[in-house]
Design brief:
Layout: E1 14-20, E2 23-31, E3 35-38, E4 61-65, H1 84-98, E5 103-108, H2 110-121, E6 126-132, H3 153-165, H4 169-181, H5 187-198, H6 204-217, E7 231-236, H7 244-253, E8 258-262, H8 269-272, H9 274-285
Parallel strand pairs: 3-4, 3-5, 5-6, 6-7, 7-8
Antiparallel strand pairs: 1-2, 2-4
Length: about 290
Amino acid sequence: MIIPDWNIPPKAGGTFRLSRGKTWIGYTARGKGPPCIICPVPWGVSSHQWNTLLAMSDFLTLIFVDPRGTGISGPVFDKQEYGIPTLVDDLEAVRNALGISSWLVMGQSAGGFTALEYALAFPQAAEKLMVICSSPTGFFHKGTIRDKNHPRYPEVKENAEKFRREFTAENFRAYMRSVYVMDVQREGAKAEVDAMFASTDISIERYKYFATVELSRYNVLAKLPAIACPTLIIAGKHDIHVSPSHSETMRERIPNARYVLMERSGHFPWLDEPEKFTEVAKNFILGGETK
């Protein structure tokens, strides 16, 4: 283990509710080994949808926290509660409730936004940091399927227009299923991604806040040199949602960051290259070298 007290207290196994003012935060801890917070995406879905990461519970205690207004967490009373800063504060409250001195902080895609802001806000709590297929800024669409110059942009535009005509959770879910399956490289993983998005509840109000407020607010580029904990950055070579160039920028700006480009992966490298992803993550987390 990296530090002696990286142990989850017995009360942590299971599902819990933590009071936060007028609302509450729902979270689940599963697995064994060092504690790892799976940082939620802030755009409107439960963190428990990332059940495809459960293979890592063989060597980690995974902690899934639902953002306010999603999953098993309570309602939102003020729009600002949809923001990443509030989400970061809620994660820290969960850590304190569990009695964990520090934990591994992991975030993928927009969950990487949460992870980076958490590591910057609470550096003493981030023992190690993993950022997967993410960006240090909300302006990351150049070169992706949401870029008009991308060859698959017409497909995305057509699906997006259907969603915008009727701004409902059902149509948004259908849109997400269509665009994320496009990114999966391993044929067998397409069904896993489709099922993941087909079964999740979506907060349209949280998504609207993310799209109209958080994407323009979020920018930690200038702060990246302040990240002092060991950091692993993973990118998928074929990622059509977030260009690997953003991962390269993070590698350049975060002191001593390790960088791994998954050659046969898209936006979900733990599904496209599960054995390699697990090996890379486990080596980093348990103190070995990243290959």
